[in-house]
Amino acid sequence: MFFSFKYLSVLVIASLFLLLGACQQETFEKGQLSIIEGLKPADQYFVGRNYPNIGEGDISYKKAVSQALKTIKKRNNNTPWTIEGPHNIGGRINCIAIHSTNANIIYIGTPAAGIFKTTNGGTTWTQQFINQGSMAIGALVINPLNPNILYAGTGDKALSSFTYLGRGLYKSTDGGNTWTNLGLENTGVISKIVVNPNDTQQIFVGTAGNIYTQDNNRGVYKSNDGGITWTNTLYLGPTSGIGDLIMHPTNPSILFATGRNRFRSSLISIVNGPAARIYRSIDGGTTWDTLTNGLPQGPQGKITLAIAKNNPSIVYANYCDTTMNYSGFYKSTNGGNSWQFVSQDPQMSLGGFGWYFGEIRVDPNNDNKIYWMGVDLFVSNDGGDNWQLNAPEWWQYDVHADKHDLQFISSNSYLLATDGGLYKTTTSGGNSAGSWNYISQIPITQFYRVAYNQFSPNDYFGGAQDNGSLQGNATGLSVWQRYFGGDGFKPIFHPQDPSIFFTQTQNGYVHVTYDGGNNYDPMTSIIADVERCNWNSPYKLSSHNPNHMYFCSYRVHKTTDIQFPAFTPISNDLTNGTANIHHTISAFDESPLQQGKLFVGTSDARIWTTQNDGSSWTQINTSLPSRYVSSIKASPNNPNAVFVSYWGYRDNDTTAYIYYSDNNGSTWTNIAGNGLPQFAINSIWVLPGGNDSSLLVANDGGVYQTADRGTTWSRVGNNMPIIPVFELDYNPTTKRIMAGTFAMSLQTIPLDSLFITKPLVNASVGNTSISATISISPNPAHDVIYIIQSSQQLTTATLYDLNANKVANIVLSKPGKYSINTSHLAEGIYIVLLKQGQQTHTQKIVVKH
Prior knowledge:
Layout: H1 8-20, E1 27-30, E2 33-36, H2 43-47, H3 57-71, E3 82-85, E4 95-98, E5 106-109, E6 115-118, E7 126-128, E8 137-142, E9 150-154, E10 169-172, E11 180-181, E12 190-195, E13 203-207, E14 219-223, E15 231-234, E16 240-247, E17 255-261, E18 263-264, E19 269-270, E20 278-281, E21 289-291, E22 303-307, E23 315-320, E24 326-332, E25 340-343, E26 360-362, E27 370-373, E28 377-380, E29 388-389, E30 403-408, E31 414-418, E32 421-425, E33 437-438, E34 447-451, E35 460-464, E36 468-472, E37 481-484, E38 492-493, E39 501-505, E40 509-513, E41 521-522, H4 525-528, E42 539-541, E43 549-552, E44 556-559, E45 568-569, E46 585-590, E47 598-602, E48 607-610, E49 618-619, E50 628-634, E51 642-647, E52 658-661, E53 669-670, E54 681-686, E55 695-699, E56 702-706, E57 714-715, E58 725-731, E59 736-741, E60 746-750, H5 768-771, E61 774-777, E62 784-789, E63 795-800, E64 806-812, E65 816-821, E66 828-836, E67 839-847
Antiparallel strand pairs: 1-2, 2-19, 3-60, 4-5, 5-6, 6-7, 8-9, 9-10, 10-11, 12-13, 13-14, 14-15, 16-17, 17-20, 18-19, 20-21, 22-23, 23-24, 24-25, 26-27, 27-28, 28-29, 30-31, 31-32, 32-33, 34-35, 35-36, 36-37, 38-39, 39-40, 40-41, 42-43, 43-44, 44-45, 46-47, 47-48, 48-49, 50-51, 51-52, 52-53, ...
């Protein structure tokens, strides 16, 4: 099935909505900090992970990472995940490092997929920095005297609402093949690394801190012994970190740093404040002075710096203000003693989220040529007085929007890191598509959602962060298609008509095509324009009538005619009733076994059900956590059963929240059992045709499975690193589970490699010399299994679950009736192994309470 990409106007509108932000901003003063309540790209989605509290999330996340690292080799089988792609539609790249003598050797750092390296200028890449405990990379620097030595600062420097935090500074002495931790493990995010070219044992690190806490593990750190010991030489406060850090090119005693205030909670986003200043040290970072002469005063947003290479008395500074928009370009010609306002070009947009990017660079051979990175890339040839585009405008998708780093090969050739991958120019950029080449054919697309289309059964579909709605598979890793723009979410396909399908962008905007993708019509904009909608608003075609659709804002809407959609509310406000933008429906499902039976979960911890298609609703979250509902899954096997999972990290509360009810939510059972790391659970998939014992979950560390409804869990696949996976689905044509990772594109694994009973022993099964003398009953069993032995033989009976874990063992020493208590076991399939000498017999037993 082929989708033509003709609906460009929708792409532009949807992506423009991303830039303008979905939420209104309200600024007020609290002490000296300006607090912005409006949240920018994906923030509304991610900030809910910590409802109702943010502040200690990294503590439990680090615990989960440590747990997963210890058990990552204990996977359920040797089956690998297959990366289906895309390679040609990228994801965000934070930083670039280029080998000093061989420009074909390039390293790039990603927000969740580690480091990639090429030795042939971008033709092929290898992934590095796998399973180090944090695959979020914020800074990369090559040792100026030895290009085989590389430093990597962990943590996502973009500092979005759910920033993947780091585990400190790492060093490689073999070109990135192996890594050693150099400390600073509690600094949250490392934003900059500077190595003294005259003494490479002297390293400076700028840290942004953990944006969810207030502590003193932030600022500029200095080491004189290659990272063995560290001293904090510039500490700006418990919510303040370092945004930028540069060194004088010929006098390493002179350094410049910028401060920035950054703190996140479920209610506020501090993105500016009094720490946002330029600081200078002239004694090798021992002491620092605040520079003021000619610079803006009062609270500021992010400030970035660049220093001229030929005349380092010239220093440039880029400012964004308290609204996080571009506010001015400044220049010093005397090493920072005084500054002059140079320009403020209104076409240079930061889109209201200047904390996300905004860095500047100076041409190494031309002190007056400066590059400015925002939504678009701009260049000035006269020291900042005038600016012009240096790449095609973002909406053309020739060079992706949102620029994060630029590194020079020469004056005419440089690399550009964006939200959509890495680009290279050999002709000084320009604003034409032909001047730039995409060179990062690697799987780093960040998927929110995945889907199956029976009319294109060999393809995989998904919605990706800042990269739209996509289609493709592993046979064409570099020819995936983008058929709709914006942030992409759940694709849905009409099961009877291949010309009808649906696509979704952020904040509840669903579009429908009736002609196979040539034209799209807005479907939910009337609701999304006026009602509180989740960043990833749930919507679904009915399993019982595909012409019926449900859509969720803070209430449930339904249309009974997708050809002429007129949505009608079938519920009242199911959140706590506040107008706060964070209180929305976050999860929805309809029972595939009972028409009109719906389940709803909200961002403020409420769960509801209706058995009459919305005529009446019952709240069913009694005894469940007060957390953001991340997923709700109606059982495909039992009309009265439902699974629910939650987001939420909190110190001393590191539970991976997942619960099961088989009585419509009257009572719940915690099924987060042994082997499930304490990561937030994002998605649940239940094996149809069983008794709800076999299921998968996607979490922030990968994919895990259970065959005994949560008593025991094991990791799925043998090659997926610790990366976030946001959704699971199933392709019945290829018989593969789909995993939408938020780090390494879309991956699949064969379903028949999962839920396999491991061989218990190498023995003949059904040996009559044993089974003829022993009976086992009842089957299914409830609270007890009875074993009756009629012969005078010594027999052992061992009960195993499907992960080969021993759960009971008895000895049958003489004829008689013996029992195994199963009342404490989870429902599911178990194996009884009987052994007499060298003879064995196995029998499958179903436990059902």
